[in-house]
């Protein structure tokens, strides 16, 4: 995807020059004019609620990299003849008074998140427990929005139900990943002796980049972990079978060295006939 794919221009009112105290709060380039001394829905504004929704979603991973408990909120301040939007940071429901260093750090980075509009962050690998390298390899294959650097963005501009559309998009991505992880769907880009690996573990393509095991017995709930370990040279098969007086286990885990899928199937069959 071209680097400019998330950078689009929109016909909105340019922010005016207002005297803002950047040392105390994080002011945004969004404002609503004050008409007859009061802001109203009819007064001119250069933003919509969807602008704020996008900014909150897009900047949250960055804010949480400072403190995982931080949350983003918005309020407004009267500055001359306009109500200017301010981004607030909360922790445990209480507004955080940021140090000058943190406030300047956020202020110096905020424009790159504002500029992502109208694209809205739906899925980011920094919040997920799946292996990060696996996510980077498979996320571009999910048909939902646009992929960029470990994240998926969607454009809900113009949709009144953008909140529910965001929820449905996240649910779709999460369900696909859950199914792929369980079934051992992986990318083999960069794997040495790729064709040998495919044959050894009886993998079949499901797209140009992704493969899945074609095994009669699905022996693990985390097929991805098993195959990624094989790529790294860890040939152990670990099966939890619980207490068994006839089979030597390690705290209920059967651990065997395996070199191909046939050896795996042989172990599974012997356990089933038992």
Please give the number of β-strands: 12
Low-confidence stretches: 1-23
Please report the number of helical segments.
7
H/E element order: EHEEEHEHEEHEHEEHEEH
First-to-last CA distance:
52 Å
**What is the helical fraction, as a range of percent?**
25-40%
> What's the story with the biggest beta sheet?
4 strands, antiparallel
User: How many separate domains?
Assistant: 3
Task: Report on the architecture of this protein.
The protein is elongated and about 85 Å long. Helices cover 32% and strands 23% of the residues. Strand 2 and strand 3 form a beta hairpin. The termini are far apart. With 274 residues, it is an alpha+beta fold. It has three domains: 9-117, no CATH class; 119-182, no CATH class; 186-273, no CATH class.
Topology (elements, then pairings):
Elements: E1 26-33, H1 49-64, E2 70-79, E3 82-91, E4 94-95, H2 100-114, E5 119-124, H3 132-138, E6 146-148, E7 151-155, H4 162-182, E8 186-187, H5 194-200, E9 203-205, E10 210-213, H6 223-231, E11 236-240, E12 253-257, H7 261-273
Antiparallel strand pairs: 1-3, 2-3, 3-4, 5-7, 6-7, 8-10, 9-10, 11-12
């Amino acid at each position: 995807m071209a680097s400019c794919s998330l950078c689009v221009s929109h016909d909105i009112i340019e922010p005016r020059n207002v005297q803002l105290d950047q040392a105390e709060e994080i002011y945004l380039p969004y404002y609503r004019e004050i008409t007859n001394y009061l802001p109203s829905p009819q007064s001119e504004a250069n933003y919509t609620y969807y602008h704020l929704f996008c900014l909150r979603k897009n900047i949250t991973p960055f804010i949480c990299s400072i403190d995982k408990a931080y949350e983003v909120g918005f309020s407004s301040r009267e500055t001359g003849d306009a109500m200017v939007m301010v981004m607030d940071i909360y922790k445990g429901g209480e507004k955080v008074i940021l140090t000058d260093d943190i406030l300047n750090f956020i202020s110096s980075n905020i424009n790159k998140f504002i500029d992502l509009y109208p694209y809205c962050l739906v899925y980011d690998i920094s919040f997920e427990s799946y292996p990060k390298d696996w996510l980077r390899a498979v996320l571009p294959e999910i048909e939902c929005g646009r992929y960029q650097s470990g994240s998926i963005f969607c454009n809900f501009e113009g949709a009144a139900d953008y909140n529910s559309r965001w929820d449905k998009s996240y649910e779709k991505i999460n369900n696909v990943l859950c199914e792929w992880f369980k079934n051992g769907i992986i990318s083999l880009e960069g794997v040495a002796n790729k064709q040998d690996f495919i044959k050894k573990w009886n993998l079949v393509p499901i797209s140009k980049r992704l493969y899945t095991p074609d095994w009669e017995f699905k022996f693990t709930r985390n097929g991805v972990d098993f195959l990624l370990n094989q790529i790294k040279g860890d040939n152990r098969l670990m099966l939890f079978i619980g207490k068994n007086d006839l089979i030597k286990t390690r705290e209920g885990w059967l651990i065997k060295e395996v070199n191909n899928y046939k050896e795996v199937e042989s172990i599974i069959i012997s356990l089933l006939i038992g």
